[in-house]
Amino acid sequence: MQKKEYIQKMFAGISRHYDLLNHMLSLGRDRSWRRFAVAKLPEGLILDVCSGTGDVAIEVSGRNRAVASDFCREMLQLCARKIQEMNNGSICCVQSDAENLSFKDGAFSGAIAAFGIRNVADIKKALSEMHRVVKKGGRVIVLEFSQPENRIFRGIYYLYFKKVLPLIGAAISKKGGAYSYLPSSVMTFPERGGFVQLMKESGMERIELYDLTSGIVTVYVGIK
């Protein structure tokens, strides 16, 4: 099974528990991480790539219109349900692959991917697509897990991330593979400098990065 098919099937399997586990396993920090990343976006129409159940798009909709895009139908169904319950007319959901976005060039003022870019088969291609659909001067934001640089904190974090988190995730979701995949996907994700280089190669300029919560996550900001 190719990575794309595996990821699609995996997220479909954990979709019902996805929000609960995100909040619980991050000790509630995921909300503040998303707020920080969204604050870096410009005003205008925003594309939320790898949107999942739409938490970033919902955060964006406080001041902008947003399109929630994901290739997993089950995730988008939950996103649409949340939007309907909120009676939020500022968001629409579109099923679309991050490596082949179904939007016109320059259609958005900004694009953001939160905790999703590491799951695509071709990261550079997904970044290039985000760059393509953003207008000149627009911003591309990526919020992703990182490896803490402080050795002592990193040791404590790895113990939780590699040992405890998969056990809790498997117990609640009944899908052990999904939460074993999470630590391994973070360990193989490019280091900060390597990811900045991928953004540059995808066409982005003036790239800035911000480490949050002692480097557990990093927010990357690029300009088209």
Structure description:
This protein is an alpha/beta fold. The chain has one domain: Vaccinia Virus protein VP39 (Rossmann fold, 3-Layer(aba) Sandwich). The chain has nine helices and seven strands. Helix 4 links the parallel strand 1 and strand 2. The termini are far apart.
Topology overview:
Elements: H1 3-14, H2 18-25, H3 29-38, E1 46-49, H4 55-60, E2 66-70, H5 73-86, E3 91-95, E4 108-114, H6 123-133, E5 134-145, H7 151-173, H8 176-187, H9 192-201, E6 205-212, E7 217-223
Parallel strand pairs: 1-2, 1-4, 2-3, 4-5
Antiparallel strand pairs: 5-7, 6-7
> How many beta-strand runs?
7
What would CATH call the homologous superfamily?
Vaccinia Virus protein VP39
Mean pLDDT score: 86
Q: Strand order within the widest sheet?
A: 3-2-1-4-5-7-6
Give the CA-CA distance, first to last residue: 35 Å
Write the element-wise H/E pattern from the N-terminal end onward.
HHHEHEHEEHEHHHEE
Q: Level of helix content?
A: 40-55%
Q: Which overall shape is indicated by the principal axes computed on the Cα atoms?
A: globular
In CATH terms, what is the fold-level topology? Rossmann fold
Uncertain segments are: none
CATH class: Alpha Beta
Number of domains: 1
The total of helices stands at 9
What would you report as the Rg, rounded to the nearest angstrom?
16 Å
CATH architecture: 3-Layer(aba) Sandwich
Largest sheet: 7 strands, mixed
The helix-and-strand class reads alpha/beta
Question: What fraction of residues sit in β-strands?
Answer: 15-25%
